[in-house]
TrEMBL record, chains A, B:
Compartments reported by the entry: Cell envelope
Protein name, as recorded: Sec-dependent nitrous-oxide reductase
Gene3D superfamilies according to UniProt: Cupredoxins - blue copper proteins, YVTN repeat-like/Quinoprotein amine dehydrogenase
Keyword Membrane: no
Domain of life, source organism: Bacteria
Enzyme class, spelled out: oxidoreductase
Keyword check for Oxidoreductase: yes
EC number(s) stated in the UniProt entry for this protein: 1.7.2.4
One Gene Ontology term of the molecular function aspect: nitrous-oxide reductase activity
Gene expressing this chain: nosZ
Keywords per UniProt: Copper, Metal-binding, Oxidoreductase, Signal
Length: 655, 655
């Protein structure tokens, strides 16, 4: 056994070594670029980019907003990780966003953003994204570019085949990557096979507000569910998931989960299951999971712990789930704009397999079944096969579409993007990536209507592409022009976090939705101070509430006395500005938390627990005016047993 | 009194309103750009930028590394704020870096980076940067691009006139912005005048390792010390600090600290004080402050709490400190490459005042003193004046130099960069900024040898310059070509965090220093596992140490049993890779901490306290190879009273 392992490892090492070679030709390649590449990516001062790209930060846990074609970074939206700059996960308002059944979890691995759709077209309302590690799905509102909801996914682990949206945003779907005991229990790991399970969660989206609710979880065999995409057009109502580790191995997976020549794409008829559930089907199962909602009116989040979830056994809904054999350990599971073709990117396969939705329906109708896995029917490979792209590259991972009949597939091992034709399966172009490309993105690529002007390749290795920054080098993406017959590499652009996966759309879809400020009159924060005259300090035992305001260029109050060592002091700060782009920031010296960065019309709160007597300053941390440096104040902290009265002032001495 | 305040506020509001108007001409301006701007900023795929720019994140607390002329972001170096992506401030190794006398402080306001110098020229060894809020100075090592030391500055508040380096890196200097009681005590804020003090700290830099140590603190009158710069060349041995609030007001500072027509530049002869101190001068004063050092060999930081600091009363060292009258509330305090001119950027002044070092020495020699402030001699304005740049703009903040006899000053209120000539004081060019520029940077600008090809303007307002991202818009910088007689605006580039201040240098100065990996043989982490065969799990009561390794594409061990609810499990993970750019990442589902992101040859540790029984997976979070998805493992958690034996395995079942 050990020898077999070793020889397999040697083979794999060769593949690995291939990916990690420096590509010596990169510099000479650049010389061959047309001089117009510079003009094509240049967005002159004052001009705007044509597309938004929402690129996940991968292991940063966040979602980044870039412009295309410039590759410029406009915002890092905090989603699953604390952000000390923006106070996300530090201030009292957003701490509940990171609550889970395991307690406060300040990080996650953010993977696959997807934009909401209406009638199969991206609509620019919301972006959904999954946290892999502690399974969660988040929703970002594209009027504020803030995370407004996070729902934990119970009975899941390595929440990877997520978070893709159906064509009318009926559901955002989250599939587990690692199977686990469901429900969790203390059992030997070696008993994995047959006992560990996967789950595919269909989370409904409220059409008006986007609120998420787990409609049902489909409990599946203990495979790894890697990626997924919705059907569209003719295949709307279905969802497709790649699987690997159909071997159900539970140790040294790089070898043991790579034995089968074919794994599966799971085809799920969610419309059928929805009907079953609407008629009372499924079982309510106890499950603890957090549902965290940020309310724009109160500028505050609340976390609710849910207690049960509806589970569905696929065997109880005949005709709802099928397995399509797919070579080998497929990663991406991609559906073309017509909904007819399902591409299985078999990462250890020499060829690219494309399934036909029409053929799949025919096979189902004719009951042509090759066998079953834990009772779920397996169709014949040949019966569902649309075509094969022969030997297009090594290590296919992900395919996107340009809406003009072309597909673009990334190859990790041979480090390239390959363009091929749907239907004829012929390769028409290939371009190298620097280096080891993972996913790629064409704006609108996961919809009926892609905007096939650019493709972004998201790379896993960077090495020598930029000025070095020590052992940790930047992550990187590359932009190609795909408007012509041949692709043209335009730009290398570095990214914050891993550029794991992306969604994009035309800028005009989002720009009109983007808010410039929060109206003060709509501020329903329970501790808001809407007029400077109402600023005050209120003591309640050892708890003190400071109702403070900011406006250029002072705090009200700016001096406070009567705070004592051992107090819990809540600073509730309302930014009274009502102009675009005039935030104020604040923190206390020695505070064991982050600053606040308060947008116009907003209220935020930090907790300060003074430990030392003295007179301690605070100040505005966001350069707000010519007199920003003068925007400061002092808090006098007296001993716990002091009689210093609670007083505050602005512009006059405290007597 | 209130009416006077109000009328002053109206005047100030006019200034403020000026800065916040959208500049309607921005779009039409861009049309006038030469088409070559695109070519000038374009760095083709595979090519490298010419300069490094180290731009502080301001209220993000971090330091960002950009390339010029492309404006691309290569790394966000965590300095004063936690970073969940890189585990900074979360893993056991770096938590001590954020320790202070106030406890763990997970954020700061990072302001003024400065590159170390040798013989008055930037040498690319270290970058120093100040934390404003909880006064600290950090050192970043440019071989690893990591923060390797942070020293807290006692007797300080709003640590702003920092962290500038003398011309042989003898000292990094940190001046307090807000005066406070020294030592801190419980006293009325209204007693500020005469009782609150400022402090100017001279922190010695070990020439070999860069280790920092507070040599002495100069205790100064209770003004606000805003910015500072070292003398150089002829003025080497002196340090210059701008002051404001010489009124010693303590409330509504935007009005009360703007009354005097002139404030001061404080000129400090640190060589003289150094000699005094070396001869036993000054007084040791009790003071608690943290000194945190990261050791590259152990990959770990330690925090030491220091107990005393040497203070110096300037009156005890005659001839060491002088005040130079300077209009009005000066911000930047900038010294030209020859060391002769000291520019006071009077932010509320109509003109720009330039002092002469030679004249200052003459005035001192001839004892021409106009008066004193708390015993410190005030020189005559006319005696030290080199010249005045007449009405160059509104709201001057900061001046840099190109080494060719030109100076470049930012004007916040009139939103422009103005080029003028040293010696003749004539304005030769001006270019608008979008909008409200704060500081600016020419690579090497704070040295005897600037590299005057580009200037970067760092703006405070962005508004409509990029695609909108809700109420919070990106921060922004602008790049100008200054190689010709007239400046040319080339590029708007967004920044992460506030682009508060920057230092830059030619790329060739740093590239040869940049390490590609950490040698495994040099790894002295106490819990390192240098061979896969040595991987193990050790229980010590309720504490469990997991000695784990990573290499493409597995963990050793990958399965662990015998962990119990209530355990404290430390995962010490060593990345055995010895190739460039092959980090591995890891976290446990539900862990109440961040991931680890482990560079080749490095060991990092996270703490996991399992709360629920079950079988819980972990996985590699950094896409490392074609079989990255298979790089995973499981931990079985049993009840606290269970007898499940502690076992672990790789590739074989745990029996």
């Amino acid at each position: 056994m050990k020898n077999i392992l070793k020889s397999t490892l040697v083979l794999l090492s060769v593949l690995v070594a291939f990916t990690s070679c420096d590509n010596a030709s990169s510099k000479s390649n650049s010389g061959a670029l047309s001089s117009s590449a510079a003009e094509k990516v240049y967005v002159a001062p004052g001009e705007h980019d044509e597309f938004y790209a929402f690129i996940s930060g991968g292991f940063s846990g966040q979602l980044s907003v870039y412009g295309l074609p410039s590759g410029r970074l406009f915002k890092v939206i905090p989603v699953f990780s604390q952000d000390a700059e923006k106070a996300y996960g530090y201030n009292e308002e957003t701490k509940p966003m990171l609550n889970t059944s395991h307690g406060f979890v300040p990080w996650d691995d953010a993977h696959h953003p997807d934009i909401s759709q209406t009638n199969g077209v991206v609509d620019g309302r919301w972006v959904f994204i999954n946290g892999n590690n502690t399974p969660r799905i988040a929703k970002i509102d594209l009027s504020t570019f803030e995370t407004t909801e996070i729902i934990e996914v119970p009975n899941s682990a390595g929440n990877h085949s997520s978070s893709f949206v159906t064509e009318n945003s009926e559901y955002v779907v989250a599939g587990t990557r690692f199977s686990v005991p469901i429900p969790q229990k203390d059992m030997p790991i070696k008993d994995y096979k047959g006992n560990f399970k996967g789950s595919l969660s269909f989370i409904s989206i409220d059409p008006e507000h986007g609120h998420m609710d787990i409609k049902f979880q489909l409990i599946m065999p203990g495979f790894d569910y890697d990626l997924s995409h919705p059907g569209r057009g003719k295949s709307h109502g279905w969802f497709f998931f790649t699987t690997y580790n159909t071997e159900e191995a539970s140790t040294l997976m790089e070898v043991n989960a790579s034995q089968n020549d074919k794994d599966f794409i799971a085809a799920v008829n969610w419309k059928k299951i929805e009907e079953y559930v609407n008629n009372g089907g499924g079982t309510m199962m106890p499950a603890n999971y957090a549902h965290n909602v940020y309310d724009e009116a109160t500028h505050s989040a609340t976390s609710t712990m849910k207690k049960e979830v509806r589970i569905v056994n696929p065997l109880d809904v005949p005709g709802a789930v099928y397995f399509l054999p797919t070579p080998k350990s497929p990663h991406g599971c991609d559906v073309d704009p017509t909904g007819e073709y399902i591409v299985g990117n078999g990462k250890l396969s020499a060829n690219l397999t494309v399934h036909s939705f029409t053929k799949m329906l025919n096979a189902i109708e004719n009951n042509k079944v090759a066998g079953d896995a834990y009772g779920i029917p397996i169709l014949n490979f040949e019966d569902v096969l649309a075509g094969v792209v022969e030997q297009p590259g090594l290590g296919p991972l992900h395919t996107e579409f340009d809406g003009k009949g072309n597909a673009y597939t990334t190859f990790f091992i041979s480090s390239e993007v390959v363009k091929w034709k749907l239907g004829t399966w012929e390769v028409v172009d290939r371009q190298p990536c620097y280096y080891s490309v993972g996913h790629l993105m064409i704006p609108g690529g996961n919809s009926q209507k892609p905007f096939g002007k650019y493709v972004v390749a998201m790379n896993k290795i960077t090495k020598d592409r930029y000025l070095p920054t020590g052992p940790e080098v930047t992550q990187s993406a590359q932009l190609y022009d795909i408007s012509g017959e041949k692709m043209e590499l335009l730009l290398d652009f570095p990214t914050v976090g891993e550029p794991h996966y992306a969604a994009g759309c035309p800028a005009d879809l989002v720009k009109p939705r983007s808010k410039k400020l929060f109206k003060l009159e709509d501020n329903k924060h329970p501790y808001a101070t809407l007029n400077e005259a109402d600023a005050k300090v209120v003591r309640d035992g050892k708890t003190v509430h400071v109702y403070m305001t900011t406006i250029r260029s002072h705090f009200a109050p700016d001096n406070i006395e009567g705070i004592k060592v051992g107090d819990k002091v809540y600073f509730h700060i309302t930014n009274l500005e009502q102009d675009y782009d005039v935030p104020h920031g604040v923190s206390m010296i020695g505070a064991n938390t982050s600053e606040l960065l308060i947008m116009p019309g907003q209220t935020e709160t930090f907790l300060w627990e003074p430990k030392q007597i003295g007179v301690w300053p605070f100040y505005c941390t966001d350069f707000c005016s010519a007199l920003h440096q003068e925007m400061q104040g002092y808090v006098r902290v007296s001993p716990a047993n002091s009689n210093t009265p609670l007083k505050w002032s602005l512009g006059e001495d405290i007597e």
